[in-house]
Design a protein that fits this description.
The protein is an alpha/beta fold. It is built from four helices and eight strands.
Length: about 170
Amino acid sequence: MENHNKNLQRINEMIRVSQVRVISSEGEQLGVMPTSEALAKARDLDLDLVEVAPDAKPPVCKIMNYGKFKYQQRKKDSKQQTAKGRLKELRMRPKTGEADIMVKVNKGREFLTKKDKVLVSINFRGREAAHVDEGMKLMAFVLEQLADVAKVEAAPKQLGKKISCTLAPK
């Protein structure tokens, strides 16, 4: 029975080598011993013998509560996934009302505190494109409101009928 899945750890009777290096549940080295002896020590403590470094010679095993270990591993993995930070967009127009702008700013603040990046974009329609300065004023206002929780990653720039700027959490 070879270890096909890298995430699958061998525990207790699944460990098929004659000798292992053992680490106690407190983290202290117990040295190299026969696997059967290591397994007996783990059983005496009502814990599992878990292979933590299968590639070492001899393999390193730790005496621990396997269920608790798996739970903490899952918790750590899910924390790493959420910390990636997705890109969220706040879309506005130069004529967007002040109250609506504040709603967008507060939503942006919420995204930034959750470690997401925020793309602020101001879109122009029709004749609004003739008043780019109004869009720049709006962009400056939004950046000023979010300055305490964000740093500008990409400065505001105009691309056609749109001004956009990327913010990253501080």
